[in-house]
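COMPLEX REQUEST
Ligand: zinc ion
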Amino acid sequence: MVVDYIRRILIVSLLALCVSLLFWSGSAAHAEESGISTWVFPADGYITDHYGTRGGNHKGMDIGGEHGSPVYSVDEGVVSKSYYSSSYGHVVFVKHPNGYETVYGHLHERAVSEGQAVGKGEKIGEMGNTGRSTGTHLHFEVHNGEWTEHKDHAIDPYLVFGEGETGQTVFAKEHDPYQVREVALKINEAQQPSFLTSGIKVPNENELHVVAKGETLWGISQVYGVSTSQLMKQNGLGDSTIISGQQLIIPSGKKSVHLVKPGETLFGIARLYNVSVDDLLVWNEVQKDDPIIPAQELIVNKD
Ligand SMILES: [Zn+2]
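STATUS: Structure written out below.
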Protein backbone atom coordinates (compact mmCIF):
# COMPACT_ATOMS: atom_id res chain seq x y z
CA MET A 1 0.00 0.00 0.00
CA VAL A 2 2.73 2.43 1.02
CA VAL A 3 4.67 1.63 -2.15
CA ASP A 4 1.49 2.26 -4.10
CA TYR A 5 1.05 5.72 -2.53
CA ILE A 6 4.64 6.62 -3.28
CA ARG A 7 4.22 5.42 -6.85
CA ARG A 8 1.09 7.51 -7.25
CA ILE A 9 2.75 10.58 -5.75
CA LEU A 10 5.63 10.19 -8.19
CA ILE A 11 3.20 9.87 -11.11
CA VAL A 12 1.24 12.91 -9.94
CA SER A 13 4.43 14.96 -9.55
CA LEU A 14 5.65 13.93 -12.98
CA LEU A 15 2.30 14.75 -14.51
CA ALA A 16 2.22 18.13 -12.79
CA LEU A 17 5.69 18.85 -14.14
CA CYS A 18 4.73 17.72 -17.65
CA VAL A 19 1.56 19.82 -17.63
CA SER A 20 3.52 22.84 -16.38
CA LEU A 21 6.14 22.39 -19.07
CA LEU A 22 3.45 22.04 -21.71
CA PHE A 23 1.84 25.30 -20.70
CA TRP A 24 5.03 27.21 -20.07
CA SER A 25 6.83 26.21 -23.25
CA GLY A 26 3.69 26.09 -25.37
CA SER A 27 4.99 22.91 -26.93
CA ALA A 28 1.62 21.20 -27.09
CA ALA A 29 1.40 20.24 -30.73
CA HIS A 30 -2.19 21.16 -31.41
CA ALA A 31 -2.28 24.21 -29.17
CA GLU A 32 0.92 25.53 -30.72
CA GLU A 33 -0.40 25.00 -34.21
CA SER A 34 -3.51 27.03 -33.51
CA GLY A 35 -1.72 29.53 -31.26
CA ILE A 36 -4.32 29.26 -28.50
CA SER A 37 -1.67 28.03 -26.04
CA THR A 38 -0.39 31.61 -25.78
CA TRP A 39 -3.73 33.39 -25.37
CA VAL A 40 -4.08 35.64 -22.37
CA PHE A 41 -7.14 35.73 -20.11
CA PRO A 42 -9.59 38.60 -20.84
CA ALA A 43 -10.45 39.93 -17.38
CA ASP A 44 -9.70 40.03 -13.66
CA GLY A 45 -12.37 38.62 -11.39
CA TYR A 46 -13.83 35.28 -10.41
CA ILE A 47 -15.66 32.56 -12.31
CA THR A 48 -19.43 32.81 -11.93
CA ASP A 49 -20.59 30.35 -14.58
CA HIS A 50 -19.28 27.79 -17.02
CA TYR A 51 -19.70 26.77 -20.62
CA GLY A 52 -22.55 24.31 -21.22
CA THR A 53 -24.80 25.27 -18.30
CA ARG A 54 -28.47 26.43 -18.55
CA GLY A 55 -29.45 23.28 -20.42
CA GLY A 56 -26.46 23.53 -22.71
CA ASN A 57 -27.47 26.98 -23.92
CA HIS A 58 -24.71 28.89 -22.17
CA LYS A 59 -21.99 28.90 -24.82
CA GLY A 60 -19.39 30.86 -22.89
CA MET A 61 -17.93 31.40 -19.46
CA ASP A 62 -18.79 34.23 -17.07
CA ILE A 63 -16.31 36.26 -15.09
CA GLY A 64 -17.65 38.53 -12.34
CA GLY A 65 -15.55 41.53 -11.46
CA GLU A 66 -15.34 45.23 -10.81
CA HIS A 67 -17.67 47.45 -12.82
CA GLY A 68 -15.60 49.42 -15.34
CA SER A 69 -12.49 47.22 -15.04
CA PRO A 70 -10.64 46.57 -18.31
CA VAL A 71 -11.50 43.73 -20.69
CA TYR A 72 -8.67 42.55 -22.96
CA SER A 73 -8.46 40.78 -26.30
CA VAL A 74 -7.07 37.27 -25.73
CA ASP A 75 -4.90 37.49 -28.85
CA GLU A 76 -4.14 39.79 -31.72
CA GLY A 77 -6.83 40.16 -34.35
CA VAL A 78 -9.31 42.43 -36.02
CA VAL A 79 -12.55 43.67 -34.45
CA SER A 80 -15.23 41.96 -36.55
CA LYS A 81 -18.22 43.49 -34.68
CA SER A 82 -18.67 46.19 -32.08
CA TYR A 83 -22.27 47.11 -31.33
CA TYR A 84 -25.14 47.05 -28.84
CA SER A 85 -27.56 44.13 -28.79
CA SER A 86 -30.51 43.49 -26.47
CA SER A 87 -29.00 40.17 -25.36
CA TYR A 88 -25.22 40.70 -25.38
CA GLY A 89 -25.50 44.41 -24.45
CA HIS A 90 -22.39 46.29 -25.53
CA VAL A 91 -20.40 43.56 -27.23
CA VAL A 92 -17.09 43.21 -29.10
CA PHE A 93 -16.17 40.35 -31.46
CA VAL A 94 -12.53 39.76 -32.44
CA LYS A 95 -11.38 37.52 -35.32
CA HIS A 96 -7.93 36.05 -34.82
CA PRO A 97 -5.40 35.07 -37.53
CA ASN A 98 -5.78 31.35 -36.67
CA GLY A 99 -9.48 31.44 -37.62
CA TYR A 100 -10.85 31.56 -34.08
CA GLU A 101 -13.32 34.27 -33.08
CA THR A 102 -13.83 35.49 -29.50
CA VAL A 103 -16.79 37.40 -28.04
CA TYR A 104 -16.88 39.79 -25.06
CA GLY A 105 -20.39 40.64 -23.85
CA HIS A 106 -22.32 42.81 -21.35
CA LEU A 107 -19.61 45.52 -21.53
CA HIS A 108 -20.11 48.84 -19.78
CA GLU A 109 -18.24 50.58 -22.59
CA ARG A 110 -16.65 49.51 -25.89
CA ALA A 111 -13.18 50.93 -26.59
CA VAL A 112 -12.77 49.67 -30.18
CA SER A 113 -14.71 49.83 -33.42
CA GLU A 114 -15.33 47.44 -36.31
CA GLY A 115 -12.33 46.86 -38.59
CA GLN A 116 -9.83 48.00 -35.97
CA ALA A 117 -6.72 45.88 -35.42
CA VAL A 118 -6.06 44.92 -31.80
CA GLY A 119 -3.05 43.40 -30.10
CA LYS A 120 -2.88 40.54 -27.63
CA GLY A 121 -3.85 41.87 -24.20
CA GLU A 122 -5.07 45.18 -25.61
CA LYS A 123 -8.02 46.76 -23.81
CA ILE A 124 -11.17 46.51 -25.92
CA GLY A 125 -13.75 47.67 -23.38
CA GLU A 126 -14.85 47.78 -19.77
CA MET A 127 -16.71 45.19 -17.74
CA GLY A 128 -20.36 46.05 -17.26
CA ASN A 129 -23.93 44.87 -16.87
CA THR A 130 -25.60 45.76 -20.19
CA GLY A 131 -28.04 43.61 -22.17
CA ARG A 132 -29.55 40.45 -20.68
CA SER A 133 -27.40 40.41 -17.57
CA THR A 134 -28.17 40.42 -13.87
CA GLY A 135 -24.91 41.67 -12.41
CA THR A 136 -21.57 43.04 -13.49
CA HIS A 137 -19.72 40.35 -15.42
CA LEU A 138 -17.97 39.53 -18.66
CA HIS A 139 -19.61 36.89 -20.82
CA PHE A 140 -16.76 35.40 -22.86
CA GLU A 141 -17.10 33.02 -25.83
CA VAL A 142 -14.54 31.16 -27.93
CA HIS A 143 -15.46 29.95 -31.41
CA ASN A 144 -13.25 27.56 -33.37
CA GLY A 145 -14.22 29.27 -36.63
CA GLU A 146 -16.75 32.01 -37.20
CA TRP A 147 -19.40 33.03 -34.70
CA THR A 148 -22.82 31.95 -36.02
CA GLU A 149 -26.29 32.73 -34.78
CA HIS A 150 -26.62 29.22 -33.36
CA LYS A 151 -23.04 29.29 -32.06
CA ASP A 152 -22.20 26.07 -33.90
CA HIS A 153 -18.45 26.52 -33.46
CA ALA A 154 -18.43 27.50 -29.79
CA ILE A 155 -15.93 25.58 -27.67
CA ASP A 156 -15.42 25.46 -23.92
CA PRO A 157 -12.91 28.20 -22.96
CA TYR A 158 -11.50 25.69 -20.42
CA LEU A 159 -10.02 23.85 -23.41
CA VAL A 160 -7.82 26.91 -23.88
CA PHE A 161 -7.08 27.95 -20.31
CA GLY A 162 -7.54 24.77 -18.31
CA GLU A 163 -10.44 23.84 -16.06
CA GLY A 164 -11.58 26.32 -13.44
CA GLU A 165 -14.24 26.24 -10.78
CA THR A 166 -17.08 28.55 -9.75
CA GLY A 167 -15.88 31.19 -7.33
CA GLN A 168 -12.26 30.73 -8.35
CA THR A 169 -10.25 33.94 -8.74
CA VAL A 170 -8.90 34.59 -12.23
CA PHE A 171 -6.19 36.95 -13.39
CA ALA A 172 -6.19 38.88 -16.66
CA LYS A 173 -3.32 38.77 -19.14
CA GLU A 174 -2.08 35.36 -17.99
CA HIS A 175 -2.37 32.14 -19.90
CA ASP A 176 -2.88 30.38 -16.55
CA PRO A 177 -5.63 32.69 -15.21
CA TYR A 178 -5.94 30.63 -12.03
CA GLN A 179 -2.23 30.77 -11.15
CA VAL A 180 -2.75 27.69 -9.06
CA ARG A 181 0.81 26.45 -9.34
CA GLU A 182 2.21 29.77 -8.19
CA VAL A 183 -0.16 29.95 -5.24
CA ALA A 184 0.68 26.39 -4.23
CA LEU A 185 4.39 27.16 -4.34
CA LYS A 186 4.02 30.40 -2.38
CA ILE A 187 2.52 28.72 0.65
CA ASN A 188 5.26 28.20 3.14
CA GLU A 189 5.27 24.82 4.81
CA ALA A 190 5.66 26.54 8.17
CA GLN A 191 2.20 28.04 7.70
CA GLN A 192 0.52 24.67 7.41
CA PRO A 193 -2.13 24.13 10.06
CA SER A 194 -1.64 21.16 12.37
CA PHE A 195 -4.69 19.26 11.15
CA LEU A 196 -2.80 18.49 7.95
CA THR A 197 -0.36 16.21 9.67
CA SER A 198 -2.76 14.51 12.09
CA GLY A 199 -4.12 11.08 11.25
CA ILE A 200 -7.14 10.81 8.98
CA LYS A 201 -9.48 7.84 9.00
CA VAL A 202 -9.89 6.56 5.48
CA PRO A 203 -13.25 4.93 4.78
CA ASN A 204 -13.20 1.46 3.23
CA GLU A 205 -12.31 1.19 -0.46
CA ASN A 206 -11.12 4.79 -0.55
CA GLU A 207 -7.50 5.86 -0.80
CA LEU A 208 -5.40 8.54 0.82
CA HIS A 209 -3.37 10.98 -1.23
CA VAL A 210 -0.76 13.29 0.28
CA VAL A 211 -0.59 16.51 -1.72
CA ALA A 212 2.86 17.16 -3.22
CA LYS A 213 4.26 20.61 -3.92
CA GLY A 214 2.73 22.26 -6.96
CA GLU A 215 -0.19 19.85 -7.27
CA THR A 216 -3.68 21.08 -8.01
CA LEU A 217 -6.99 19.53 -7.08
CA TRP A 218 -7.77 19.24 -10.77
CA GLY A 219 -4.47 17.46 -11.49
CA ILE A 220 -5.15 14.97 -8.70
CA SER A 221 -8.72 14.44 -9.91
CA GLN A 222 -7.34 13.50 -13.35
CA VAL A 223 -4.89 10.97 -11.93
CA TYR A 224 -7.53 9.15 -9.90
CA GLY A 225 -10.30 9.59 -12.47
CA VAL A 226 -12.69 11.38 -10.10
CA SER A 227 -14.21 14.85 -10.34
CA THR A 228 -12.95 17.88 -8.43
CA SER A 229 -16.42 18.26 -6.87
CA GLN A 230 -16.28 14.65 -5.61
CA LEU A 231 -12.90 15.39 -4.01
CA MET A 232 -14.19 18.61 -2.44
CA LYS A 233 -17.29 16.88 -1.08
CA GLN A 234 -15.39 13.87 0.26
CA ASN A 235 -12.88 16.09 2.04
CA GLY A 236 -15.24 18.87 3.14
CA LEU A 237 -13.38 21.50 1.14
CA GLY A 238 -15.06 24.86 0.57
CA ASP A 239 -13.01 25.58 -2.55
CA SER A 240 -10.31 24.01 -4.67
CA THR A 241 -7.40 25.37 -2.64
CA ILE A 242 -5.04 22.61 -1.45
CA ILE A 243 -1.58 22.86 -0.01
CA SER A 244 1.51 20.71 0.03
CA GLY A 245 1.34 17.99 2.70
CA GLN A 246 -2.45 18.03 2.94
CA GLN A 247 -4.07 14.59 3.08
CA LEU A 248 -6.94 13.96 0.72
CA ILE A 249 -9.34 11.05 0.78
CA ILE A 250 -9.84 9.80 -2.76
CA PRO A 251 -13.36 8.43 -3.24
CA SER A 252 -13.50 5.08 -5.02
CA GLY A 253 -15.14 4.83 -8.40
CA LYS A 254 -13.56 4.92 -11.78
CA LYS A 255 -14.16 7.43 -14.51
CA SER A 256 -14.87 5.82 -17.86
CA VAL A 257 -14.76 8.73 -20.31
CA HIS A 258 -11.96 11.23 -20.84
CA LEU A 259 -12.45 14.60 -22.54
CA VAL A 260 -9.35 15.29 -24.66
CA LYS A 261 -7.58 18.58 -23.94
CA PRO A 262 -5.27 20.50 -26.30
CA GLY A 263 -1.84 18.94 -26.57
CA GLU A 264 -2.77 15.53 -25.19
CA THR A 265 -1.59 12.32 -26.81
CA LEU A 266 -3.00 8.78 -26.70
CA PHE A 267 0.18 7.75 -24.93
CA GLY A 268 -0.27 10.42 -22.26
CA ILE A 269 -3.92 9.54 -21.73
CA ALA A 270 -3.06 5.84 -21.46
CA ARG A 271 -0.54 6.73 -18.74
CA LEU A 272 -3.13 8.89 -16.98
CA TYR A 273 -5.59 6.00 -16.60
CA ASN A 274 -3.01 3.27 -16.23
CA VAL A 275 -4.19 1.44 -19.36
CA SER A 276 -2.34 0.55 -22.56
CA VAL A 277 -2.45 2.50 -25.81
CA ASP A 278 -3.64 -0.69 -27.49
CA ASP A 279 -6.60 -0.87 -25.08
CA LEU A 280 -7.53 2.72 -25.97
CA LEU A 281 -7.30 1.92 -29.69
CA VAL A 282 -9.61 -1.08 -29.34
CA TRP A 283 -12.15 0.50 -26.95
CA ASN A 284 -12.48 3.60 -29.12
CA GLU A 285 -12.21 1.85 -32.49
CA VAL A 286 -9.45 4.17 -33.66
CA GLN A 287 -6.21 3.53 -35.55
CA LYS A 288 -2.81 4.30 -34.10
CA ASP A 289 -2.23 7.16 -36.57
CA ASP A 290 -5.67 8.74 -36.21
CA PRO A 291 -5.37 12.22 -34.70
CA ILE A 292 -7.15 12.85 -31.42
CA ILE A 293 -8.69 16.28 -31.11
CA PRO A 294 -9.62 18.53 -28.19
CA ALA A 295 -13.12 17.92 -26.80
CA GLN A 296 -13.14 14.39 -28.25
CA GLU A 297 -14.47 11.81 -25.78
CA LEU A 298 -12.38 8.69 -25.25
CA ILE A 299 -13.41 5.53 -23.40
CA VAL A 300 -10.63 4.97 -20.88
CA ASN A 301 -11.98 2.17 -18.73
CA LYS A 302 -13.90 -0.97 -19.62
CA ASP A 303 -15.12 -2.64 -16.44
ZN1 LIG B 1 -22.49 34.16 -19.84
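REMARKS: Residues 53 and 59 are 8 Å apart (CA to CA). The first helix runs from residue 2 to 25.
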